[in-house]
């Protein structure tokens, strides 16, 4: 058993007086590829913020690599939701990726050639190296997403959080992100991401966290990602249609955990 | 024209001042906090009045401390109110601005009535600003501030960039967002307090925001925006002071702000790429390209159907004027040959029409074969399409089109 990358105990987060996350208990083992799944407004992004330390829990605690979130000096790679960024901001692609190197530079020092080379290497990994001089607003949505992924790679952190990296991207970007995720997994990094597409979970992620204000279930995908748990997560919203689609898919893939379903 | 040493001092002072305002303004603009500048500037008034009542002097140092304290108080209120109440940030900013300025005006009234002397007139000067009486020491203070501010911004460039662009990321990277935030607000408050005597309570915010807004038209780079914004601020200070010193009855503040406004309007209209005129021209030429493409495509169509050309009258343009322009541009580029009745494609024109048609066809093929579409990529011209799709993919798509055509 590996030591946990993230330990969440009895976590409650509230916005004003209304709890948006309630009674969360979960551990995410180091080196896993973990998807946070749940309907809209289930508190998925809030949970990421709590792990990141931008929101303070009303009760309970969170530990990252056995250190409390507020006190931990551990770097966390972070890919925000694309909508949360000001794309008109006067900054080019390379500048954004270079931000990933800032925390290791320390105060007052500017990124130099070593940092630029490293940033270019990260851009190369997501297939964006030749666009490094573009202003970020001039990219397509998928390319913007890849820039953020490259920035989180440049951070070279043991733990990386991504808020819906697959939302609204094109096929090329989806493939690029998949490859990056697999590579990170090979290097033993822990990646936690908010994910929407139920179809792709089973064959790709080895850990899931089913969330709907409360924690419905968390654990290895094979045991946790079951129809019963999904029904409890989505309630009536997992429509008959989805169920039928899922049934068909299961028959077709034969619940194989090797191939990728494309 | 002779510039007296006194005027020279003032000129240097306001130029430095403009630089400070431009630098801080750029940071505020990028952080989307331009309104905070307005709130803080107006909020200095009660601080100044209270400092005058307690200190009993008109010395800038005493009044400045009062102004700085009430500026920081209002900045704190603006960030604190939305967190503990249901008031949103814009409403909180507007509330603080109104309340503090109202209190300040009331205090000025009290000071004037209490007969504390003609010095009340000096406080009046703070409303619209006055550069005429600027001392050498004050000008020196402005110069030193501008230099310090540039140094701070240079040294903390990367921290400021993250704090403006993506503060949540800053937290994940252990860059202390709160401290940087506080530093930015302090820089703003300090700049405003220094600018007050020259530009005045009412208009200082304008000198902070306008240069940055104007600078945004000229560049897409962070460092350049800071530099250009500082430059526009400096120019506004210089020109405004010059004009107001030539006409003694014009108050300096409004003239400086009007100079900045002039530069803003010039930027808005004339800046390359982002300026209004250039945008308009770009859009127009894009539209014309598209119309010409359709025009050539129409001729190609009928030539493929076997006719030897298109009658001059039958054309796909929306209006006769568009038709005429399409014809004119196409024949000027050597894409078509016209005789009295017929329009025919030249070799060159045929190549162009075929190329456009092929690119669009391939694009449609790609959009239908790849289920997930990137919405920003749907509406494109042939140049873009050929740039985006890799050559081997173009070949594959072309083959699948050809295949469908033959089967």
Structural topology:
The complex is a heterodimer of chains A (about 260) and B (about 400).
Chain A: E1 4-15, E2 18-29, E3 33-37, H1 44-52, E4 59-64, E5 67-68, E6 76-79, H2 93-105, H3 113-125, H4 141-155, E7 159-163, H5 171-186, E8 190-194, H6 201-204, E9 207-212, E10 214-220, H7 221-224, H8 227-234, H9 240-253
Helix pairs in contact in A: 2-3, 2-4, 3-4, 4-5
Chain B: H1 5-30, H2 34-55, H3 60-84, H4 89-113, H5 119-128, H6 136-155, H7 157-165, H8 167-172, H9 177-199, H10 204-215, H11 222-246, H12 252-270, H13 276-304, E1 310-311, H14 320-332, E2 336-338, E3 342-345, H15 347-369, H16 382-388, H17 391-406
Helix pairs in contact in B: 1-6, 1-9, 1-10, 1-11, 2-3, 2-4, 2-9, 2-10, 3-4, 3-9, 5-9, 6-9, 9-10, 10-11, 10-12, 11-12, 13-14, 13-15, 15-16, 15-17
CATH superfamily of the largest domain in chain B: ABC transporter involved in vitamin B12 uptake, BtuC
> What's the average pLDDT of chain A?
83
Strand content of chain A: 15-25%
- Biggest beta sheet summary of chain B: 3 strands, antiparallel
Number of helices of chain B: 17
Radius of gyration of chain B: 31 Å
Silhouette of chain B: elongated
What is the β-strand count of chain B? 3
The SSE order of chain B reads HHHHHHHHHHHHHEHEEHHH
Strand portion of chain B, in percent?
under 5%
Q: What percentage of residues of chain B falls in helices of 4 or more residues?
A: over 70%
- Span between termini of chain A: 32 Å
Number of strands of chain A: 10
Distance between the termini of chain B: 85 Å
Report the sheet with the most strands of chain A, covering strand number, pairing sense and barrel closure: 6 strands, mixed
């Amino acid at each position: 058993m590996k030591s946990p990358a993230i330990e969440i105990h009895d976590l409650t987060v509230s916005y004003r007086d209304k709890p948006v996350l309630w009674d969360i208990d979960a551990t995410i083992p180091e080196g896993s590829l973990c998807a946070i799944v749940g309907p809209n407004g289930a508190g998925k992004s809030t949970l990421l913020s709590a792990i990141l330390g931008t929101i303070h829990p009303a009760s309970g605690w969170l530990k990252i690599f056995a250190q409390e979130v507020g006190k931990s000096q551990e770097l966390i790679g972070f890919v925000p939701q694309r909508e949360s960024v000001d794309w008109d901001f006067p900054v080019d692609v390379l500048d954004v990726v270079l931000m990933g190197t800032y925390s290791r530079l320390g105060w007052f020092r500017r990124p130099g050639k070593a940092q630029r080379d490293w940033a270019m290497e990260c851009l190369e990994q997501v297939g964006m190296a030749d666009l490094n001089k573009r202003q970020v607003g001039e990219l397509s949505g998928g390319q913007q997403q890849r820039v953020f992924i490259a920035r989180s790679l440049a951070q070279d952190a043991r733990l990386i959080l991504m808020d819906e990296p697959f939302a609204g991207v094109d096929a090329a970007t989806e493939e690029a992100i998949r490859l990056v995720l697999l590579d990170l997994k090979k290097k033993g990094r822990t990646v936690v991401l908010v994910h929407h597409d139920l179809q792709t979970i089973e064959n790709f992620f080895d850990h899931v966290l089913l969330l709907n204000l409360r924690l419905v279930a968390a654990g290895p995908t094979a045991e946790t990602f079951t129809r019963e748990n999904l029904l409890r997560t989505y309630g009536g919203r997992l429509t008959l249609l989805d169920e039928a689609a899922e049934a068909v898919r299961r028959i077709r893939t034969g619940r194989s955990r090797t191939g990728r379903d494309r | 024209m002779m510039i007296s040493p006194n005027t020279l001092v003032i000129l240097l002072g306001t130029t430095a001042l403009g630089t400070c305002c431009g630098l801080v303004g750029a940071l505020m603009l990028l952080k989307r906090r331009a309104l905070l500048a307005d709130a803080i500037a107006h909020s200095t008034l009660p601080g100044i009045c209270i400092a005058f009542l307690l200190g009993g002097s008109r010395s800038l140092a005493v009044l400045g401390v009062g102004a700085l304290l009430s500026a920081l108080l209002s900045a704190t209120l603006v960030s604190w109110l939305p967190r503990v109440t249901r008031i949103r940030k814009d409403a909180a900013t507007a509330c603080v601005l109104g309340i503090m300025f109202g209190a300040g005006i009331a205090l000025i009234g009290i000071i004037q009535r209490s007969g504390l002397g003609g010095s009340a007139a000096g406080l009046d000067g703070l409303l619209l600003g006055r550069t005429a009486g600027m001392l050498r020491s004050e000008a020196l203070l402005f110069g030193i501030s501008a230099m310090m501010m540039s140094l701070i911004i240079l040294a903390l460039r990367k921290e400021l960039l993250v704090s403006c662009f993506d503060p949540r990321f800053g937290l994940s990277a252990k860059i202390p967002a709160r401290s940087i935030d506080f530093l930015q607000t302090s820089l703003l408050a300090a700049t405003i307090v220094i600018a007050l005597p020259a530009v005045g309570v009412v208009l200082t915010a304008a000198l902070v925001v306008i240069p940055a807004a104007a600078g945004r038209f000229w560049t897409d780079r962070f460092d350049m925006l800071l530099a250009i914004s500082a430059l526009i601020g400096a120019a506004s200070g210089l020109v405004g002071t010059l004009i107001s010193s030539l006409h003694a009855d014009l108050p300096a503040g409004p003239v400086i702000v009007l100079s900045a406004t002039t530069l803003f309007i010039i930027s808005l209209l004339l800046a390359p790429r982002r300026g209004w005129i250039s945008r308009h021209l770009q859009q127009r030429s894009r539209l014309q390209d598209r119309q010409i493409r359709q025009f050539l495509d129409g001729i190609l169509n009928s030539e493929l159907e076997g006719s030897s050309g298109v009658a001059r009258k039958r054309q796909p343009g929306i209006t006769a004027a568009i038709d005429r322009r399409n014809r004119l541009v196409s024949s000027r580029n050597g894409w078509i040959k016209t005789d009295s009745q017929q329009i025919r494609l030249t070799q060159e024109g045929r190549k162009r029409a075929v190329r456009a048609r092929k690119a669009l066809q391939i694009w449609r093929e790609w959009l239908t074969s790849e289920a997930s579409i990137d919405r920003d990529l749907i509406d494109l011209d042939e140049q873009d399409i050929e740039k985006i799709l890799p050559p081997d993919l173009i070949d594959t798509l072309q083959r699948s089109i050809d295949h469908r055509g033959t089967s």
